[in-house]
Amino acid sequence: MLFMWLMGRTGSWRARVAVVALLMALLVGAAACSYTTDISEPDREPATSTILDRNGEVITTLHAGEDREPVTLDQITPTLQDAVVAIEDERFYTHSGVDAKAVSRALAHDLGAGKVEEGGSTITQQYVRSALLDPERSVDRKVREAVLAWELERELTKDEILERYLNAVYFGDGAYGAQAAAKHYFAKPASQLTLEQSALLAGLLQAPERYNPLVAPDVARDRRDTVLDKMLEQGMIDEAAHDEAIATDVVLAASPTGDSADDTYPAPHFVDRVIDEIVASEEFGGSPEERRNLLYTGGLTIETGLDLEDQRLAEEAVGRVVSEPDTDPAAALVSIDPAGGEVRAYVGGSDYFGTAGDAQFDLAGQGVRQAGSAFKPFALVAALEAGYTTDRTYPAPSSIEIPLPAPQEAWEVHNYDDRGGGELDLIEATVQSVNTVYAQLTDDLGAPAVVEAATRLGIASPLEPVASVALGTNGVTTLDMASAYGTLASGGTRSGPTFVTRVTAADGRVLYEADHSSERVLDEAVASEVTDVLRQVPERGTAVNARIGRPIAGKTGTTEEEGDAWFVGYTPELVTAVWVGFPDAPARWCRPRRGPPSPEGPGLPRSGSSTRGPHSLMSRSHRSLLPTPRPEATRRFPR
User: Which pLDDT value is given to residue 66?
Assistant: First the structure.
């Protein structure tokens, strides 16, 4: 009450900061009289966390301590010490455990934002939080953290605190402490790190998953350069050293290891998604560091919707497409239960545990590629919502020019293999995937209507309302496509995608349970009519190889000669999206390739309709599912 009264009586921003700083000092001073804690080196026994599939089978286990090698401070190069101080706590050598200026700035910012957005914790507080305190979230604990940091500064020297911190802090990819991180990422001890290597490691501390150089090298380099800028600003390096380090490429000696207790395990990209969700969720702690500690030492039981049998089938299907990693295209696959949005199978690549520097990159959730004709159903949704009927006809020439606003030139659209002629209704244009018809349809509807429909159904990637939007020229992920088609499969209700269904603490308390509610985003009659059209695609259209012995709806997609092939298929029980292509190929739209690819460059020698691996997965993974529709009206395919 006193706090609220003082803040209400204080008008200016600077005065509010002063009030916050004063109250903080009073709280710390008062608490110091009552709080006592052993601040000797902690000796806790970490408890292993377990990730389970939907049937209770163990996917993998997670625990800390796999890659940790304590060293003395003189065995850690001064450049790494400086880099960490520069980016994490620039007043480390002058404050007494709590940086009142940083705390005041953070609190003032949070007051203005109406929520917690900035931290303000010192290196000493970060060490206290991770090593000495439980991962609870309360005002009492924040005060306790500040008091213990102040006590630690009285008991230990700055070098002793920094040494403890650098031996305990997490650098990502299973590496705890500076020595383990140096050996893991650069195959050298921490005493031999260069300036640019030190800056890269220091940059990891704020968000090891986000800045992991094995997964996102460009993001990691940008973060490294930010650290170097801070070191220059604080006089730790001169401009020549700064510029030389900035110009140096990131060269890693590490191969991805992940944080699992096992060398290999199923669904590794899925496991990464689970880890990322827990570390990002404030339900598991007040900071990413706390959440990570809870994940790797807290003995959590993490339940998911993954089905290990479906996952095995998915990985086998992808393996048949990508049997020669050096020459074959890459592939990604996502299967989702449309009823609740739970992810049943997830393949983000074929060689996660390989030695390639980008092996851990998640092609399913991070790989953004053009969807080609697999995007056309969203335009069909927009058309039906606008009052168009499926018997609406358009000319279907092999090519057509669509006028664009000045000063743009007219857009020349071609059908696949330059086939065309006569007029087609929207059913035939979808079944035969006729570009010239869908270009005219989009011109009538307006590109924003197609973008709005796709986003509403579940496409999370940003979309531009360009004239070619219905032909799939925007970049999307495999997860996007599975989620959006799942809305059609469920009769117009959107759920998920859901990776974690429940998290239970070691003492049995349920810490998190997924919200399985769904939102109606599409009229059931529209969803039913679109599904009726898409059922004809595998029956007699471009996806005849997708037949699985029971009714299935779906759509193929093939982009230009650089080679992106898609198939997204669904029944009421399962939706599966598959992308096959070359991740490094440029994402641009032009006329599709006719004939085999040239030996000089990448390209798929087949269209999306003939990529058999995805179709095989649909068939095999549906064997255990009853072919009868679910009783709810929204779960039925139209007759």
Answer: 53
Backbone angles phi, psi at 425, to 5 degrees: -85, 175
In this prediction, residue 31 carries a pLDDT of 44
pLDDT of residue 590: 32
Q: Which residues are catalytic?
A: 88, 373
Whether 264 shows a pLDDT value over 90: the answer reads no
Q: Which of 454, 451, 518, 511 is nearest to 490 (CA)?
A: 518
- Please state whether 114 falls in left (phi above 0), alpha (psi between -120 and 50) or beta: left
Can you give the residue ranges of every domain in the chain?
Answer: 2-265, 317-350+360-626
Token pair 């601040």 is found at: 39
E-only strand ranges, 18-113: 49-52, 58-62
Percent of the chain exceeding pLDDT 70 equals 75
* Token output for 268: 């590794």
**What is d(CA 518, CA 516) in angstroms, rounded to the nearest whole number?**
6
Q: What is the pLDDT of residues 138-166, one digit of tens each?
A: 556 667 778 888 888 899 999 999 999 99
CATH superfamily of domain region 2-265: Biosynthetic peptidoglycan transglycosylase-like (1.10.3810.10)
Rounded Cα distance between 403 and 409, Å, is: 7
Task: Tell me what pLDDT residue 260 has.
Answer: 40
**Residues sharing a CB contact under 8 Å with residue 432, sequence separation 6 or more, in sequence order:** 424, 541, 542
Report cis status (omega within 30 of 0) of the bond before 407: yes
Q: Is-contact 85 93, C-beta < 8 A?
A: yes
d(CA 558, CA 336): 22
Q: Is the pLDDT of residue 261 over 50?
A: no
- Helix axis angle, 2-9 to 13-32, nearest 10°: 160
Q: Beta strands of 53-118 (E only): which ranges?
A: 58-62
Q: Which strand (E) or helix (H) includes residue 564?
A: strand 564-570
Contact 360, 272 (CB under 8 A): yes
Phi-psi domain of 169 (left: phi exceeds 0; alpha: psi -120 through 50; beta: other): beta
- The helix/strand/coil state of 234 is coil
For 531-563, give the DSSP string. HHHHHHHHHHSTTGGG--SS--EEEEEE-STT-
Residue 529 tokens, joined: 């009519």
* List of residues 6+ apart from 94 with CB closer than 8 A: none
For residue 246, give the H/E element and its range.
helix 239-246
Architecture of domain 317-350+360-626: 3-Layer(aba) Sandwich (3.40)
